């Protein structure tokens, strides 16, 4: 029995949701997104909420229940508020800047890294060591953040590299003399 699945997803007044041809479409101030619906789950749109319930009593329907409710909630949150990931760059000479549709990273390599910003994603650099990634699709925002972080993961000795804001880096002790 899914505990998160029992809760209906609240839909803000600025968001409209429709179901047509087994596709849930959600439109809001940040854009429009859609998601194919699973046959084992029944979706109902009531006044200001979207309810997600298993269509039958199979194990597959019960296992999909909570996940599908979370995916619907992510759609609604994405088109109303959007999602943001913040990366922090640590290291001498490490910096980032947005130039047109590319993110230019200087990460200690012999060359600069140019990362093409995908459609639907906005990247800002408030200062040289902070990268803010925003978008309406939670999965794409997280994927772009992971691809940028992959260029220079934080190392355990000095902590240099690209890390998520709030991430704790386990630091190793140096050699003792």
Give short descriptive properties of this protein.
177 residues, alpha+beta, four-stranded antiparallel beta sheet, 13 strands, elongated
Query: What are the secondary-structure elements, in order, as H or E?
Result: EEEEEEHEEEEEEHE
- Within the largest sheet, what's the order of strands? 11-12-7-13
Q: What is the terminal-to-terminal distance?
A: 57 Å
Largest sheet: 4 strands, antiparallel
Please characterize this protein's 3D structure.
With 177 residues, the chain is of the alpha+beta class. Helix content is 19%, strand content 38%. The protein starts with 8 loop residues before the first strand and ends in a 13-residue tail after the last strand. The model has no long low-confidence stretch (mean pLDDT 93).
Secondary-structure blueprint:
Elements: E1 9-10, E2 16-20, E3 23-28, E4 31-36, E5 41-46, E6 49-54, H1 59-80, E7 83-90, E8 95-99, E9 102-106, E10 113-116, E11 121-124, E12 130-135, H2 138-149, E13 161-164
Antiparallel strand pairs: 1-6, 2-3, 3-4, 5-6, 7-12, 7-13, 8-9, 9-10, 11-12
Task: Give a brief description.
By secondary structure, the protein is of the alpha+beta class. 19% of the residues lie in helices and 38% in strands.
């Amino acid at each position: 029995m899914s505990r998160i699945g029992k809760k209906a997803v609240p839909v803000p007044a600025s968001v409209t949701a429709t179901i047509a041809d087994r596709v849930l479409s959600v439109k809001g101030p940040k854009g429009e997104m859609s998601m194919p619906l699973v046959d084992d789950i029944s979706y109902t749109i009531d006044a200001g909420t979207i309810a997600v319930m298993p269509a039958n009593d199979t194990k597959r329907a019960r296992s999909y229940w909570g996940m599908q409710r979370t995916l619907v909630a992510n759609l609604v949150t994405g088109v109303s508020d959007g999602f943001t990931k913040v990366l922090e760059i640590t290291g001498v000479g490490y910096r980032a800047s947005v130039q047109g549709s590319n993110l230019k990273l200087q990460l200690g390599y012999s060359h600069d890294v140019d990362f093409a910003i995908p459609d639907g994603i906005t990247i800002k650099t408030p200062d040289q060591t902070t990268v803010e990634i925003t978008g309406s699709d939670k999965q794409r925002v997280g994927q772009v953040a992971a691809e940028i972080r992959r260029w220079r993961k934080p190392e355990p000795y000095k902590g240099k590299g690209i890390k998520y804001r709030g991430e704790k880096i386990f630091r190793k002790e140096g050699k003792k003399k």
